[in-house]
Amino acid sequence: MNTSKAKSSEGLDWIAITQKIGTPVASVILAILIGSFIMWVSGYNPVAAFSALYQGSFGSPKAFGDTLLRSTPLILAGLGLAYGFKANLFNIGAEGQLFMGGLAAAALGLALAGQPWYLAIPLLLIAAMLAGAAWAFIPAILKARIGAHEVITTMMFTYIARYVVSWLVVGPLKDPGQIPQTRLLPVESQLPRIQSLFSDATLQAMPFLKFGRAHMGILVALIAAVVLWLVLKYTTLGYENRAVGFNPFAAETGGISVQWTTVKSLCISGALAGLAGAVEVMGVHHRLFDQFSSGFGFTGIAVALLAKNHPLAVIPAALLFGAMSAGAGTMQLVADVPQKIILIVQALVIFFVAAEGIITYFLKQRQKEVPSHVG
Amino acid sequence: MDSKRIKIISVVLALMLLVAFVPGCAAKTDETPADSGTETPEVTIKAAMVTDVGGLGDKSFNDGAYSGLQRAESELGVEIKVLESKEITDYESNIDQLANAGYSPIFAVGFLMTDTVAKMAVDFPDTQFGGVDEWFETVPANVVGLNFKEEEGSYLAGVVAGLATKDSFDSKLNKDNVIGFVGGMDIPLIQKFEAGFIAGAKSVNPDVKVISLYAGNFTDQAKGKELGYSLIEQKADVIYAAAGQVGLGTVEACKDKGALFIGVDVDQYETVANSGDVMLTSMIKRVDNAVFETIKAVVDGTFPGGTIQVFGLAEEGVGLAPFHDFETKIPQAIKDAVEKARTDITAGTITVPTAP
């Protein structure tokens, strides 16, 4: 949000932008360097490891498709978190909203069997957004009315959501088989794979379109990113969200209802997390089971941090995490590096992004002492 | 929005991640095979496995399958590879990469991979798959489902528990004739453990009261501890847990409040630190044997594709671990009863129920 403010003074613009982009990039590079060092110390070849990681994430259309597949829920969850962060709301319970979104999509998808896709898919996506928003609504009201901290309440709601889903897939929604999961969604409710949209002949002629498992959820995620960016930049809703995050007292004085904005912000955050759950159910697993999300709501926090809460920057940040996840298998296969190493690199990225925040915080503190500077 | 609070929280989170992952990695490094030394240019069999999200070091069936692979490497000279999964999404890409790299057979560990195996079996008709704990409606011709008669092993555990609770060879045993069962998810697979346990206990102690509690998942150790406390409060003095990591919490409860524990899947005396004073025995699932036998069948050219293989007591697919610290304390009568039950089940004179 500093960039938009800095627009007025042209000289600062460049510095602000380089700073914005430069620090996350530097964090990633530092993380890779330290990760390499750890690999080297543990007796693995870091060059082989990272080239395998690249091969497995961007090396072929199929690998890139795998990266897209894994980035899709991260983009959506990251967007939701970024929107909350902008209003200074730490929606740590995105995972729970994601579960409710997945549940809504699965339950409605099974109920809508026989409906055409152009009816089923939008309805499922909307239902998932509503479910995610509803799951964020109670913590939001508690925050707005009695000041209950959203970190605690949303986290607790995550447990409830997980247990509700766990109970439903063992009980009422269970597939008759051995495994605790719902039945498969009807084809009309599934998000098709990108490569299935092209004919075999087209794929033969243009093999770079063979995106493997990547599905149309990525389109949903990209649209969501652009819409959220426009909302934050050009609408009153977005302005209020930013204003409350920037200074709630000033916002209140300026006639913005902080309480109402808090509720809206958390609900939008929840809606996007719910959407992340829906694309995972509709695009990847085509059914619901209790482990369908691998902590996307939590990884989304890292994505939003790395993107510095900019909706468009969430896309490359999510791609980075998606690529690391997609390439981990190849890294194990080709370079014999255990998958846990990649988790260390991910943790280092988060660490340096956060550490960078500390540095700028101290810099700002010092600046404040000299001139009266407000971003 | 750059607030101090978020910064602090994020730093704490990052540190938590770092602290959590570094030891995990350190432990992992020595477990990875010292690079593929056997470089025979001949058509060697390349066997591989994909772990479920528990990964290696779960001290349970992922590690069990891995030791089966290792045994095949040393005894049969096959090349081996393990791909660990961190996310459910990894299952398909890991199997896909292994199949593309020419690995066969590929073992997929855990029932959550059932769908994926069925799908990949179609994509790679020339690759052989082994699905540990996987049950297929119609088994593809290049797939073998590896399942276990957990109820039979649990029956033996039940015999031990049923007799122990009447006895007083340890100060933690009371006079209330109550034993407990902790399950992971309330699904048919886990109900097999419960059913066998109850049947075994009742066979030697018809009046015993068995209380069963389910955690709802396989990971929440705090929940396991809570369930353990709850069982002990209800006077249970021997607790059997078939609940993955949840059981580790139950061990803690047993140590805290004084009850005996029966482990599951592997000999948990070996894998759970400082549990000797409560670890009566463990019901072991010989995933290693199942994996090894399947690789051996591939080497011999007798891969039983298209079938479900069920490993019971007779096939040494399940069994009971040694009593370890209780070896000398336990009355001979209990050991004899276990042996009798074992022979009866193997001979087919006892059929163990699979649902409680």
List the helices and strands and how they pair.
The complex is a heterodimer of chains A (375) and B (356).
Chain A: H1 2-6, H2 10-41, H3 46-58, H4 61-86, H5 94-111, H6 117-146, H7 150-170, H8 200-205, H9 217-234, H10 236-246, H11 248-253, H12 258-285, H13 296-306, H14 314-335, H15 339-369
Chain B: H1 4-29, E1 46-50, H2 61-76, E2 79-83, H3 90-100, E3 106-109, H4 114-123, E4 129-132, E5 143-148, H5 150-164, E6 178-183, H6 188-204, E7 209-214, H7 221-233, E8 238-242, H8 246-257, E9 260-265, H9 268-271, E10 279-285, H10 287-300, E11 307-311, E12 318-320, H11 332-347
Parallel strand pairs in B: 1-2, 1-3, 3-4, 4-5, 5-11, 6-7, 6-8, 8-9, 9-10
Antiparallel strand pairs in B: 10-12
Helix pairs in contact in B: 2-10, 5-6, 5-11, 7-8
**Helix/strand structural class of chain A:** mainly alpha
CATH architecture of one domain in chain A: Orthogonal Bundle
Shape of chain A: globular
Supply the helix-strand structural class of chain B. alpha/beta
Oligomer: heterodimer
CATH class of one domain in chain A: Mainly Alpha
Please, could you describe this protein's structure?
The complex is a heterodimer of chains A (375) and B (356). With 375 residues, chain A is an all-alpha fold. Chain A has a domain at 71-321: ABC transporter involved in vitamin B12 uptake, BtuC. Chain A contains 15 helices and no strands. The model of chain A is unreliable at 1-10 (pLDDT under 50). Chain B folds into 2 domains: 28-148, Rossmann fold; 150-287 and 318-347, 3-Layer(aba) Sandwich (Rossmann fold), CATH 3.40.50.2300. Chain B is 43% helix and 17% strand. Chain B has helices at 4-29, 61-76, 90-100, 114-123, 150-164, 188-204, 221-233, 246-257, 268-271, 287-300, 332-347; strands at 46-50, 79-83, 106-109, 129-132, 143-148, 178-183, 209-214, 238-242, 260-265, 279-285, 307-311, 318-320. In chain B, helix 2 packs parallel to helix 10 (287-300), helix 5 packs parallel to helix 6 (188-204) and helix 5 runs antiparallel to helix 11. The radius of gyration of chain B is 22 Å and the shape is globular. The relative contact order of chain B is 0.13. Chains A and B meet through helix 4, helix 7, helix 10, helix 14 and helix 15 of A and helix 1, strand 2 and helix 3 of B.
